[in-house]
């Protein structure tokens, strides 16, 4: 039978191994082990500061760990998070000085419905005062959005959804469906048959949702806005 120290060493090795199907159960076990396990998770979390920001394969692991630690009722852990990660684990870059901190806080708390609303608000803010007042976007406005900001928004959604939500996920599913919009709507549960999913109560605001379910884009106005998002140079 393993000693606690041996178990912690093995779990740390699994966590640092980079294999997602092994990392997730290791994280869960480390959480159950209390302070010694939490310490290993905090050490690993600090590695996120050394990871290339474009590494989408790693960002959701760090986001998940941050979410788990955020839920611990422990003064020492919460103090460390506030001191070392006051905004969260995703760098909030913006070409136009947009404040994405409220969105990061909501996503970290898994408040996906509020996060979806904030995402649209930030997109409109990026597009300018006319879009902000209108509260929705023209596809021509989407085409002019900065690459850096769209990538930040995408990183935020990836980080706090186990990599299940985000524009890059939607784009991957769209390309995988042969760019067939009807297939995509069914796959991400925005439409069933001829019936569009109604906002907000028919959408799923947690990780039980299909991959790519969030963030939303209003398709009742047509596919042009979504097409502009998924074809944006941010993903090339």
From TrEMBL:
Cited CDD domains: GUN4 (cd16383)
Domain GUN4 N-terminal ARM-like repeat, chain residue ranges per copy: 2-86
Any matching Pfam family: GUN4_N
Record domain GUN4-like: where: 94-233
Protein name: GUN4 domain-containing protein
């Amino acid at each position: 039978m393993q000693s606690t120290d041996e178990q912690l060493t093995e779990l740390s090795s699994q966590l640092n191994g980079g294999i997602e199907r092994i990392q997730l159960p290791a994280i869960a076990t480390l959480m159950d082990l209390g302070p010694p396990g939490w310490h290993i998770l905090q050490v690993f979390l600090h590695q996120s500061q050394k990871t290339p920001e474009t590494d989408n394969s790693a960002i959701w692991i760090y986001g998940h760990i941050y979410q788990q630690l955020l839920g611990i009722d422990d003064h020492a852990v919460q103090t460390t998070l506030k001191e070392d990660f006051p905004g969260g684990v995703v760098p909030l870059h913006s070409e136009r000085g947009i404040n994405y901190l409220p969105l990061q806080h909501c996503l970290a708390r898994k408040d996906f419905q509020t996060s979806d609303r904030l995402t649209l608000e930030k997109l409109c803010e990026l597009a300018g005062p006319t879009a902000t007042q209108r509260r929705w976007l023209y596809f021509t406005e989407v085409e002019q959005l900065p690459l850096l900001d769209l990538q930040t928004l995408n990183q935020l959604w990836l980080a706090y959804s186990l990599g299940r939500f985000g524009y890059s996920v939607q784009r991957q599913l769209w390309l995988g469906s042969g760019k067939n919009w009807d297939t995509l709507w069914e796959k991400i549960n925005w439409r069933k048959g001829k019936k569009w999913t109604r906002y907000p109560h028919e959408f799923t605001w947690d990780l039980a949702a299909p991959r790519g379910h969030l963030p939303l884009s209003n398709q009742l106005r047509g596919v042009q806005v979504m097409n502009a998002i998924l074809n944006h140079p941010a993903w090339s």
